Amino acid sequence: MNILEINNDLFRMLNSLGKEFQFFNLPMIIIAEYTVIFLAIFVILFWFTKDRENKIMLMCASIAFVLAEIIGKFAGLLHFNHQPFAVLSNTNQLIEKAINNSFPSDHTILFFSFCMSFWLFKKGKWILWILLAILVGISRIWVGVHYPLDVMVGALIGITSAIIIYFTLPKLTLIENGITKYESIEKVIRRKFHKTNLM
Question: Which segments constitute the Phosphatidic acid phosphatase type 2/haloperoxidase domain (predicted)?
Fold first, then answer.
């Protein structure tokens, strides 16, 4: 049995659970489709805390994601496969998705880039973010839009990028200088906003 057959069998095993345990389908659809909105809201809100370490963490996580996406695009040039629902019969497809190269999973890359960065910066305390990233990966298989290999490679790329950025970028003075400049601009904007409200 080759790796593609194993990939197909693992997909069938996970995806068919949606037919057997249909009460999980709605939660999986929400996780697969809408957790990205939750992540975006969290990032925006957390950016405006006064903790400089949080800003550095979010900046590094964002750069890790960009790096991971670039690596993911190169990986997509080396291997191509359509979404499972476009190739396999009797797929339990629960969400709409354009047919293109599903390798690797962009959602998985996004969540593992950010969640691994959060976990590293918080010294392993934010383990729930890692669990969320894993759940997002599983949900993409459950709803029928990705193979396990798409998800596993996406996770590996996201994790690797987060580790590379974590151990290199915060040490650069460019990051500190960038945060300092941003904070000075933010203070000016806040003062102007405050004066406008007093008038």
Answer: 57-166
Give the pTM: 0.88
64 in Cβ contact with 161 (< 8 Å): yes
CB 4 within 8 A of CB 103: no
* Per-residue confidence in pLDDT tens, the chain, 199 aa: 688 889 999 999 999 999 989 999 999 999 999 999 999 999 999 888 877 888 889 999 999 999 999 999 999 999 999 999 999 988 999 998 999 999 999 999 999 999 999 999 998 888 999 999 999 999 999 999 999 999 999 999 999 999 999 999 877 777 777 777 777 777 776 676 666 655 5
C-beta of residue 17 within 8 angstroms of C-beta of residue 144:
no
Round to the nearest angstrom and report the end-to-end CA distance of the chain.
Answer: 75
| Domain containing residue 141 | 3-198
DSSP 43: H
CATH number, domain at 40? 1.20.144.10
Look-up of token digits 């903790």: 51
> Count of domains in the chain?
1
Q: In what helix (H) or strand (E) does residue 178 lie, and over which residues does it extend?
A: helix 173-198
Q: Residue 38, Cβ neighbours under 10 Å: how many? A: 12
